[in-house]
Design a protein that fits this description.
Layout lengths: L2 H19 L5 E7 L5 E6 L2 H13 L3 H8 L3 E3 L11 H8 L4 E9 L2 E10 L7 H18 L10 H4 L1 H15 L3 H15 L3 H11 L10
Antiparallel strand pairs: 1-2, 1-5, 3-4, 4-5
Helix pairs in contact: 1-5, 5-8, 7-8, 7-9, 8-9
């Protein structure tokens, strides 16, 4: 399999899995940042996603643009009442029917190269657990896009919530982090070391915070 076809298979698998793995997700797409800042939608679950993403790029306004530019996870509970993106949100809600949105960055070696964009047809479609699920899925995608084979089963990131919770608990206790910060430490370590999130969490849960000593900045 060529690198190009492997990349395509990876992003297609990810977007098709998102509605099953992330509770509020009805549609999903992956946007990638190319040299010079050009952004393209590399895979999507449907035409509505392609239109929503293209409109963000055209207007330079919207959650994906914000997520890429500001290096953060972005969530909107109601696109009909969203002041952050006054040009994009009305079209996304009225013309395309999306009511809420979640954008999760794809990191590789400490830099952002794209976003996993998840859309819901309902208001407040994404809760805290959905954000965590989206981050876990994005972590696996990022590892795969760095040259590793797509994980045997993307659901493994979600099926392993117990061990991920144990690992987060150890980091929270040792470093005084919030739950979200502890999860981010695990995700970043997974991506930077090209190791599956589940394996990182199992190591931390088993060995404690010392398992990440060599990866801390």
């Amino acid at each position: 399999m060529s690198a190009k076809s492997g990349f395509r298979d990876t992003v297609l698998t990810a977007v098709r899995s998102a509605p099953r793995l992330v509770g509020g997700c009805d549609e999903a797409g992956i946007s990638v940042v190319h040299a010079g800042g050009r952004v393209t939608t590399e895979a999507s679950t449907g035409e509505r996603v392609e239109q929503a993403d293209a409109l963000q790029v055209e207007l330079q306004d919207g959650p994906c643009v914000q997520s890429i530019q500001e290096s953060e996870t972005v969530r909107s509970a109601d696109l009909r009442d969203e002041p952050r993106w006054p040009r994009w949100s009305p079209s996304a809600a009225e013309r395309l029917g999306f009511r809420s949105m979640l954008c999760v960055q794809l990191f590789t070696s400490g830099r952002t190269f794209g976003c996993l964009n998840m859309y819901s047809d309902t208001v407040d479609g994404f809760d805290h657990d959905d954000v965590q699920a989206g981050l876990a899925l994005a972590a696996h995608v990022a590892v795969a896009l760095r040259g590793a084979d797509l994980v045997d089963n993307l659901e493994s990131a979600l099926a392993s919530r117990d061990v991920i919770g144990q690992a987060k608990g150890r980091l929270v206790e040792r470093f005084g982090l919030s739950s979200e910060q502890a999860f981010d430490v695990l995700v970043r370590y997974s991506q930077d070391r090209n190791v599956k999130l589940r394996e990182v969490a199992e190591q931390v849960a088993r060995e404690g915070f010392g398992a990440l000593d060599d990866g801390r900045s």
